[in-house]
Write a structure and sequence with these properties.
332 residues; 2 domains; alpha/beta; 11 helices; 43% helix; globular; eight-stranded mixed beta sheet; Rossmann fold
């Protein structure tokens, strides 16, 4: 009897292994997502959805309920899980961290009639703050998320206590790279995208690349529409940034090829009360890959009493900044 039971159990286990292997081979991104979901739940991260202007917006939140709220906005083609390495730094420091999926991305709704413009996304994020009961927050954004954060801070300065911009887009500086790479259709284009994002691109197995391209074929239209809106330059912030009054921290990867350091330097010059910190060995994906540098800088900034007089010159500001492995005083 025992041998028969053991044999049946062995067969069932073998079948399960085969099925699991087949699922992982054909849909590896789904498996990775389920593992990440499980890890987030184990760490106490809560997953919620709210309705904002008739659209379903998903978000994660973690940290003490009485902590100062910090809202982090992901970039183009990203999602709220992109903050899974940076968010714990803030949580452990006592902050209540909200990471929403922008409209059309992650687990949020993907309406086909939406513009996915910076202005519309910013308006939705203000509505998100209203829906979750946040009157004033520390706001951070990465890449396109930084552009949206700028727009929120410019149009609703009373809602933003401090602003953190990470490798942010937003200035009238056309990309010098082929924007079609953001919606890759071949393994070679996917490799080019990874090389743009980081100076140390990962080696992606062919079956994983195939699954990523499959998903991109289904959802890439949102990225294309958002890019098309951004490339019109209707929402650029060059003329708006000097009006900001809240303290601003600008974090940049010194090897960023998507939004080069020259854009960070330009933002720094436009915002009188800004600080610039540069992670010299990092690329555009610095908020994820160089968390050990970005995390402490953000916490130090949020806790500090940093202010600069309104009449501080650009030259004086550059002297004040002590950067992460990079000296901005000569505009390098």
């Amino acid at each position: 009897m025992f041998k028969k039971f053991f044999w049946r159990l062995s067969v069932a286990f073998a079948i399960l292994l085969v099925i699991s292997g087949a699922v992982f081979y054909t849909h590896p991104t789904w498996v990775f997502d389920r593992i990440q979901d499980y890890r987030l739940k184990l760490s106490g991260v809560e997953s919620h959805t709210v309705m904002v202007d008739g659209h379903r917006i998903h978000y994660y939140v973690n940290g003490p309920r009485d902590g100062q709220p910090v809202v982090l906005l992901h970039g183009l083609g990203g999602r709220s899980e992109d903050w899974d390495k940076l968010s714990p730094y803030l949580q452990k420091a006592g902050y209540r961290v909200y990471t929403p999926d922008l409209l059309g991305f992650g687990q949020s709704e993907e309406p086909h009639n939406a513009s996915y413009s910076i202005t519309d996304q910013a308006d939705l994020m203000v509505g998100f703050l209203d829906e979750v009961g946040l009157s004033r927050v520390d706001l951070g954004g990465w890449s396109m998320g930084g552009w949206i954060a700028q727009k929120v801070a410019v149009d609703h300065p009373d809602r933003v206590r401090r602003l953190v911009l990470m490798d942010s887009a937003g200035l009238k500086m056309p990309p010098h790279w082929d924007t079609r790479i953001f919606t890759p259709t071949t393994p070679a284009e996917l490799a080019q995208l990874h090389a743009l994002l980081t100076p140390r691109p990962p080696k992606v197995p062919s079956f994983v690349a195939k699954d990523v391209l499959r998903l991109n074929a289904a959802y890439g239209w949102v990225i294309k529409r958002a890019l098309a809106s951004m490339l019109t330059a209707r929402d650029v912030t060059d003329d708006d940034l000097p009006s900001l009054k809240m303290p601003v921290l600008i974090l940049w990867g010194g090897q960023d090829r998507i939004t080069p350091l020259s854009e960070g330097l330009a933002m720094h010059a436009l915002i009188p009360q800004s600080m610039l910190r540069v992670a010299s060995e990092c690329g555009h994906a610095a908020p994820h890959e160089c968390t050990d540098q970005y995390g402490p800088e953000i916490i130090s900034f949020l806790r500090s009493q940093f202010t600069l007089p309104e009449n501080t010159s650009t030259a004086q500001k550059k002297e004040i900044n002590v950067t992460m492995g990079h000296d901005t005083r000569n505009g390098e």
